[in-house]
Design brief:
three-stranded parallel sheet; 14-stranded mixed sheet; F-box-like_dom_sf; alpha/beta; elongated; LRR_dom_sf
Amino acid sequence: MPPGENVKGAVQPVAGSSGGIESLPDGVLQHILGFLPSPEAVRTCVLAQRWRHLWKAAPCLRVGCDLDQSESVEELRSLVNHLLLLRGGSPLEACYFTFYAGRRSHDDVSHVNLWFRHVVQMCKVRVLTLFMFLLGEPWLELDNLPVISQHLRSLKLIGVQVHNSLLNFSSCPALEHLELSCCELPPSVKEIVSESLKHIIVIASMCGWDSRIRIYTPNLVSLHLENFQGRTPILERMPSLLKASVEITIQCRDRCTNANYFWTCDNSGSTANGSINCVLLRGISEAKSLALRSASNMFIFKRDLRWGPMFTNLKTLLLNGYWYVPDDFHALARILERSPVLKKLTFEFCNKWCHKVEMKLCVSSMKRSAAISEHLEIVEIKCEVVDDRVLKVMKFLCAFNICKLTCSAPLAFIFLKFTVMSICMKESIA
């Protein structure tokens, strides 16, 4: 390009400017300031006359977001009060509060609740995250008041205590994403209600010990429940659900002391709300993809199967060792019988992040068993080592003519192929 000739369509510098950042319009500068921690964004007011008030209209507020140097509510109290006061009702696209929950006073609780309500109601925030670091202290308690907003789309709460009114999102018609991590949902919480929610994540949160929380979110698209403490929540029907992952760990109170817990449970408190039939599986039975993990002594999944849920849309299913304890494949057989369009089945014998061996078995199109989905194309087995549990599952699969094998561990492949062929031959002879 000849010297001095401008590229067609290029933005021309503002007259009298150097052509650098000063040439950008105010809206672009405010957008850039939204990526800075709010204290740093405020400091830009000393750069030049033009910058004095730009930070007040930045679309994002980030307070205490440095996880390595987290600050307490008391340390940030003056800063946040002045930030919100000077911003006035300037709208927020996103707000991120991160506080260290050390020794705190009643003033800390009242200030956090005031800031929470201010950004929701005055600043019309669309994406809100409140993150409280917990170090042995009680959860910071949010007010038992409903959240009312026409603008809030995403709410993420970490390390706080929430009550029933706050979790009724009937007055938040735009809310689509909810995450509760390391939160306490005390016995006063009876339900989570929203007609608009599409995505819910609940991780390592404490629910009631003697009653179940009802989750009514009929338009949910994805659900992730993991490592919750207390009673398993009751899931109402979710006809739009595409994907769900549920992991029931030893923190859950729905455990059984009876060794033969598939049909009955000797735990006197096992039902908790005795009139309840299906707790989890019926609510997620219309999903297209399911990952169902559980500790071995939990009874909810197997108990739910007795109520006959059908997985009519299910195409992808992942199961951990809970479903195929040695010499007991009742639960596995039942869920396969009730998944008529299943295409992919994965068995997970180890932690979901640390498998070393991955095997794929194919279903024989000529000798397909009528007891499994006619659409089933592939079965995966993920494990650390090929032990007796793995071989017993492979024997179970051979009964359905699932025998053709590929393996990610070359040294083990010949042995495994020979083993599978031997098992299949014995099954066919029998």
